[in-house]
Amino acid sequence: MLGFFDKLKTGLEKTRHTFTERIEQLITGHGKIDEELLDDLEAILLSADVGVKTTGKLMQNIKAAIKKNEIQTADQLKPFLQDQINSILTGGETDGGKDYPAPFIIMVVGVNGVGKTTTIGKLGHYYRQQGRKVLLAAADTFRAAAIDQLEIWAGRTGAELIKHSEGSDPAAVAFDAVQAAKARKADVLIVDTAGRLHTKSNLMDELKKIRRVIAREIPDAPQETLLVLDATTGQNAVNQARTFGDVVQVSGVVLTKLDGTAKGGVVIAVKEELGVPVRWIGIGEGMDDLRPFDAAEFAGALFADK
């Protein structure tokens, strides 16, 4: 059975093909570093959806290191890039809420289709595996299937579900869920939210209202607001993060479907361009394929040999 690092390495295969392997091909046979090589390297970074701003920063750092003679030959570029990417991504990894008094409340936001409900189910599974009591709140009342899906996940993971009927007030669901979490002495409460309403401003107002209701019942809650992004959408994921971040104070990102994309560089773009840490990554369909993000592990898997 594959360990998580090997799964991550396999999951990043498409990104490695458009990124690390192309860098390898580029530097092979090059002794010295010239302008043409640097231009080609820049193009590779952009094609992996590292983002314009982050690519600019990485290229600037490479040129500065060349001037200081820290990098003298082409084959030193790869380890230097790995260190740089590790450095960008380090900081903000999740401790799973261990430092917070129960109930640790996680509000989960994101557009429809990114794997939000599945992510909540897998988060619930992760905490249940740690022996913690988990409640799920079905506050996406706009989409009937969302309540049903969450009910299925609650059954699979052994979490308890708080739900109202379709079309009911999402903030009322959140309120009841917080009361239930306190009364039942739950360790973790995970609140699902709508990914789409009639208008974008309508959706954002709803999210703010849910957040206010939770904070009124437990000051400083929700302690975590996770934005779920689909890694296959590349730079579009960064734009989504900007939109949600303006409204709900996103504390961290969950990147799903990393195993299905060549755009894994978006992990770097999200952290560098938005200053929002990647907290969790999804690299498969299995219950255990959502894991806390580890910067050194990710950089190591991205630059690992085949």
Quick synopsis:
By secondary structure, the protein is of the alpha/beta class. It is built from 13 helices and eight strands.
- Structurally, how many domains make up the residues? 2
Please state the oligomeric state of the protein chains shown: single chain
Helix content: 40-55%
Number of helices: 13
Structural class: alpha/beta
Overall geometry comes to: elongated
Mean pLDDT: 89
Rg calculated over all Cα atoms: 21 Å
- Strands across the major sheet, in which order? 3-2-4-1-5-6-7-8
CATH topology description of the largest domain = Rossmann fold
* Low-confidence regions: none
Per CATH, the superfamily of the largest domain is P-loop containing nucleotide triphosphate hydrolases
Main pleated-sheet profile: 8 strands, mixed
Indicate the proportion of strand residues. Answer: 5-15%
Membrane topology: Peripheral membrane protein
Binding site for GTP: 110-117, 192-196, 256-259
EC number: 3.6.5.4
Domain Signal recognition particle SRP54 helical bundle: 8-89
Write a structural description.
GTP binds at residues 110-117, 192-196, 256-259. The structure is a single chain. This protein has 306 residues and is an alpha/beta fold. It has helices spanning 4-11, 13-18, 20-27, 35-47, 52-67, 77-89, 116-129, 144-157, 170-183, 200-217, 235-248, 266-274, 295-302, and strands at residues 104-109, 134-138, 160-162, 188-192, 224-230, 252-256, 278-282, 290-292. The chain has an 8-stranded mixed sheet with strand order 3-2-4-1-5-6-7-8, sandwiched between helices. Helix 4 (35-47) packs antiparallel against helix 5 (52-67). 45% of the residues are buried.
